[in-house]
Amino acid sequence: MRFEEEGLGVVQPAGWRKPKGYANGMTGRGRLLLTGGLIGWNENEDFAEGFVAQVEQTLKNVVAVVAAAGGEPQHVARLTWYVRSIATYKASLGELGGVYRRVLGRHYPAMALVEVADLVENEALVEIEATAIIPD
What we know:
single chain, 5-stranded mixed sheet, 3 helices
């Protein structure tokens, strides 16, 4: 089953429960944008303090790269999160929902979240890669 959402199609297999906060799959037509791994620092490479603040800055960085390519947050089709601690992520879920909605609205693309042993930047607590499909 496919539902149109802001130029992208949400793919939901028949009979599956609707996921909360992500999509099982996305389709779309347009230019494909793949970001590098973005982290929770600003344009001056100053890190936000704490996990939630770094997630917010990282999502803002994703939106900035998408905007630089001519896209909008609703064009993000996939996010892959790399976190240093799943426990910290789970403990922050209440705050993360509000942060996510402030930056990306109620657009929930396909997502994956993976705990990693380390990230390249010592202060980074999260790194996010994005795939966007920007309409022609």
